[in-house]
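As a warm-up, study this chain.
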Amino acid sequence: MKDFFKKIYNCWMLFSKALGWVNTRILLCLMYFIIFPLFRIISIISGKDLLDRKIEKDRESYWNKREIKPFKKELYRRQF
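Now compare it with the structure written out below.
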């Protein structure tokens, strides 16, 4: 009886690894060839430069200033 369940388990694991391999390839291809190009086209049409790559010669610095917030212990205890 134990051998029977072990064979079923091994077949199921083989099937799940094959299914995972196929799904990974399909999902990654969809992301790379459909989702990312659509996102790029939308950002080009809307004129957004999300990485701030535009070079401005009269700009003094490219550092982004951050707000200084007061220290609160509660923010570090519960980070999410």
